[in-house]
């Protein structure tokens, strides 16, 4: 039977490559390419080039390949790259710059799908007369990311709106990519020392269905927008319409966090860092929800000084807010009360049954993480994050052994990952903020 023209176009113009074998081959090229370049690097060392020159060249080429593969594949590959991007602050300076650039580009850039394919999705989701719902619709996407792209439009009532359209095949691509990425987790571990890549991938896989359901994302955004309506410091765009693979929300304009990170002045970086920390710590108390996709591409600074927040596909539901045990543990670690801390960790499931640990070793492991709360303000820097990552990632040190003996209960995994991600952004911003007063106000159990 002869393939129809439309079917052939659909097959060749797909925004996400559908064939699992092709996607797997591209992902497999990452470890093979890095290994091959390492061998070539040894050859150049033998010809007299310095280790520093060779390592810099290898890092630059590996970073470019990382962007090319994770970015063009979109799906779970790009989603993973975006998630990794917030941890680049932990990468040592001598190899960080190429990866910093590649991972930052992954936050907001991906090849768009063809116009006819976009229109086909809109027809399926909003009906054949979908254009009548808009006064104007820009067929060229304003942004393209891991599982969807965003178009700027004007709703029939005159409001400027953002129209997020999911790529056909996004579900298949997410499942395939995350399976393959889990096989290569050791490779990616080297890019972000001190970050546990394997459970991060497992969590992304577990939350995949939520990310794919734009109706659920719209409900999450409605909940945030309702609670924060009229807030003087944070803006969440209101939902205008939604369908399983299309969501329409009010448009907001602002300066992307990636630009503030790269070229913002100190006052702006400190201001944005304070707003970001307040949003992170206050959301569980105010909305009983936690925005769980903390990378700079999801935040912007509006012209009136407020923080704009977008993309609510990943949200943790916390009907009782953040567990007070976390605040209590933080306070005990800050105050150096090792035995009380150990007792609370055991009763809360953070120490495996039958594991013997020295309370002072546990305090030594956890106390440095509370440094931002020891003073009225704290300067979050890449150096500080690199120091923490190096400390807990040093296989020869006591902190590494202690960390391996502790347990993170499943109900705390997402909270921990989001807090770490938000801290990573603060370090990228090089922001000095009143972290202690923010935590005292919003974190149950912390206030003395």
Characteristics:
six-stranded antiparallel β-sheet, alpha+beta, Phosphorylase Kinase, domain 1, 448 residues, 11% strand, 20 helices
Architecture overview:
- The protein has helices spanning about 5-10, 20-45, 50-75, 75-85, 95-105, 115-125, 170-185, 185-190, 195-205, 210, 215-230, 255-265, 265-285, 325-335, 340-345, 360-365, 380-395, 400-405, 410-430, 435-440; strands at about 135, 145, 150-155, 160-165, 235, 240-245, 245-250, 255, 290, 300, 305-310, 315, 380, 430-435.
- The strands form 4 sheets. Strands 1, 2, 3, 4, 6 and 7 form a 6-stranded antiparallel β-sheet that branches.
- The protein has 3 domains: about 5-105 and about 170-205, no CATH class; about 115-170 and about 210-250, Phosphorylase Kinase, domain 1, CATH 3.30.200.20; about 255-448, no CATH class.
- The chain is globular, with a radius of gyration of 23 Å.
- The chain is an alpha+beta fold.
- The chain is about 55% helix and about 10% strand.
- Mean pLDDT is about 80; it is low at about 1-15, about 25-60 and about 70-80.
- It comes from Amycolatopsis minnesotensis.
- Keywords: ATP-binding, Kinase, Nucleotide-binding, Transferase.
- Belongs to the protein kinase superfamily. ADCK protein kinase family.
